[in-house]
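To: structure desk
From: M.T.
Subject: fold request, one chain
Message: Could you run this one when you get a chance? Sequence is below, nothing fancy, just the single chain.
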Amino acid sequence: MIQRLRESDLAGNALWLVISVILATGVWYIAVTSADPIDTRRFSGIPIQFVPSDTTVMTNNPSRFVTVEIQGSQSAVTSRRSEDIVVRADLTKLGAGTHTVPLEVKVAWPESISIRRQEETQPSQITVELEPIETISRPLNIVVVEPPPLGFRNDVPETEILEMSVSGAASIVSEIVEIRGDLDLSPHRSPIALDVRPYAVNAEGDRVSGIELEAQTVTIVVNITRRDDVRQFAVRPNVRVDTLPAGYTLASVSPDPRSLFVGGPLAQLTNIADTLFTVPISLEDRQADFELSVPVQLPSDDLFVMDGENSITVTIEILPIVTTRQIDNIAVNVIGLDETYDVVIVPQNVSAYVNGPVSLVDVLTSDDIQVVVDLNGLEPGVYDLPPVVGISQSELTEANVSLLPAELNVEIISVEAAESSETVMATATAPGGG
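Reply: Done. Structure tokens follow.
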């Protein structure tokens, strides 16, 4: 009987202990979640890290990004960044075929977090297609896509690598017929060694992607030498300066191109001076800049221009000869004078210095230049006023003219005052006057 009571007391105590722990845990959880409640946050665009297999390769294009939703204490959730989340798709144990691969997500939670946490991806799995990896060897073909400049030739490119292995999905690798490297020799005029990036091509010559080449670059050695049957000549436009119209000067002559590569018999090429001339270029009636295409004269019919174009473009700049001329005795006119006023201007004639092209300045006369003083709104008094100049029947403007003097002494007087003054003076000078 006593034993039963003891066992009953122990069971009761154990039950109360369990209940106490549960209650304490609940109280603690309520206290913690009240101070730091549970929160949920979504992260979009998290990249999937594929762990590849050594024997297969993925040939389809599944989704590369997922959305991850995490749940935990608010402080821990809000402090997480995209960099704290890693999503992996493990392909290491999968063989060839189509597989549904679950996505594994790991979040770098703080060590101090002790309440429930949860993370999941959307989608939670992806479908991949795997093919066996195949490695084959294909010949390496170096293609000169741009030859050396005119006047130079190149030997066959040399490389120590004749074949290159390529790895990838069996269905893709089977399409490859050769490994190709493109060589641009256009900037080079001497022997060179270049690093070329190879690529795989199919029977149609199209590039094949999704494969891995044995080497990322190959070194190509090319011997480049000058051609004996080609020589470079400077080109000079044959401008007839004596045909330039009077009053103009030749400012500049610019040929394009400035040199040509000429081919032909070696004996003739070595006996020609280093400069070729164009056909004569006349400047008759040319009074402004112009451009024209002009043939180049070759000294023999056996010679020819390498690019087939036997003409050059010549740009010629022509400028008028500028001169300065003094024109005197130009009358000064007035405008805007009130009818009840009179005016006295000193001096009444001025000189003009005209600057401009000879062809325009030399034909000017004093009648072609107008000098005017504007008196509009002025009351009687004495003023120093700048005159306004104008040029008629010419392409020149007032900017080409400066006057001497630059200011005129102008006295405006009332007509009544002038007449009164004249009457007083006449009375004073009359016989018997005061």
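Reply (cont.): The radius of gyration is 50 Å. Let me know if you need anything else for the meeting.
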